[in-house]
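Q: Protein A?
A:
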Amino acid sequence: MKKLITLLLAAAMLLTLAACGNSSAPSTAQDSTASQDSEAATDGEAGDTFKIGIVTGTVSQSEDDRRGAEAFQAMYGEDRVVLATYPDNFTDEVETTIQKIAGLADDPDMKAIIVNQAVPGTTEAFRQVKERRPDIICIAGEAHEDLPEIGSAADLVCNNDFVARGYLIIRTAHELGCTDFVHISFPRHMAYETMSRRVAVMQKACEEFGMTFHQETAPDPTSDVGIAGAQAYILEKVPEWVQTYGTQTAYFCTNDAHTEPLLKQLFEYGGYFIEADLPSPLMGYPGALGLDLTEEAGDFEKILAKVESAVVEAGGAGRFGTWAYSYGYTTSAGLAQHAMNVINGESDLTDMDDIAKAYEVFSPGAEWNGSGYTNATTGVKAENIFLVYQDTYIMGDPGYYMGSTSVEVPEEYFTTA
């Protein structure tokens, strides 16, 4: 009897264990599937609701930058794109700038933050963002801080190509028949690596193309003379420069405030202007030519057409150039588009072709090119810092692109300093 009872109890235990085993297996599988479904739902939800933040200067200080951000927001909606501005006096309000940028990371749906122009404070703001939200893509457009420094905090940095453009501006002037080139700046700007390296490239390119390089100093608009005094100086000096250097001379200035009076006098006295420091058909031309572009605001094809018509009427056909689309406008919108493409798995963050593809969405018909930033001292090329440029457009009847983006800049220029 005892043996029978023992056998019966053993059998019952086996049945119980088997039943438990059978019931637990599907339960575990269901839990696993439910967990995967939950994760998939979370990923899908994040993919559907992610946001991109764009920080720029205000309209009063950086209108083109802000308009580009607004164009991107208009394309994708306010629920997808969040806009912010840093203070006009950003040099004295660095902490406010940092708070404005880093504060965007408080939104759990934020997946990318673009700052254009990346003024002082952006590096620290990106560091704070990464400490709290390493998943957020941080992109700097036209950085004011040292490129290696901001490159240590940002995932991607894109500045105008001060190296290639230094060469290509001279090359273009040579192709247009210029024999001389005048570079106008002041000590504060010449202390910047980007500008000092560019002027060195320009000098070297002038030697290559048999042109004579001249350097002129003009008042800094941030000095005691102010913008009005700096512009008055340019208005006064251009006639003397043209008389000294001749009408087959191209001019370039490093400051936006100098651009309008320079253009105005070149139309009057002769000379060439290939493109501005930060090129745009809005840079200097409307004021120099007395144009009202209110009706064309935001439409760069119409803006360029109106500016070009006025240039031709003023006798400047074939002597004045620009980028067909504002650099500031396309940088804000293009970098945001690139971030979206990366988030959607359509582009690689540090692929120059993918960056150019995104810029071209907001500059149809104009090609872009660029390369990785090379440290002139070490010769090391950065993996996440790119220098970009748009093809130069020479206004005329008709106007034409110079094909600058297809020109191969000699490698030696990338370490010229």
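Q: Protein B?
A:
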Amino acid sequence: MSDTLILIILGICSYFFGNINWAIVISKFKKTDIRKLGSGNPGTLNMSRNLGIKLGLLTFFLDILKGAIPTLVAFFVLRGRVFYNSDFAVSDFAIYLCGFMAVIGHIYPVIFKFKGGKGIASTIGVLIVCESVHGVEWIAIVIMALVAALVFIYFTEFGAMGSFIAITPPAISGSIRLFLFYSKSLYNVTIAFSIVTNMLIFSICFFTWFAHRKNIERMLSGDEHPTSIKEMVVKAKSKKTQKNSNNK
């Protein structure tokens, strides 16, 4: 089977895998619909605000896997191959292609009439895989970005801006890595694939930022919904105490 056909199949599968919205699935088990609560966004922060931090973290973890799994599959299926008449690794292109398709599938899912989440957790999953398969030094950037995002949200309660902090540095580092790996190539095709792959990285960030356009507008007007991690933790402890009290 040709590399092109494999890429097409993996891309389509990644899109439909991205269609699975765990926030909606989990909220249905709780006999409600997260799309009708709070901001209406079927994602981690809205789940945490309305259904508790535990379910929010579960949603976050599952959405990370939604981006990570297609990306990881693409890497293992196509690693070791290079594009014809170049030295550009097919897997370097495939991981971002499948990651992009998974994120698009999350934001614009056909099974939910193209109304999905905002793609941050899935993008984090994509970037974790894209960086980790190239070495510990690259995954360290993802970890630092996530820690910085968490600290920012904790002290400012601006969830959307914290989300941007989580994904933008790893995306930039991925672009830098491609430049370092392929800038000295003597093949014109390699340079072309490097440019296209960088466009995929940019596109992943663009669509996740674009999905947050209303959040950006609210931040600028001062009307953004606060994301208080401290309040979520207090509520979780309060529920646990009440449950223990009822069981006595």
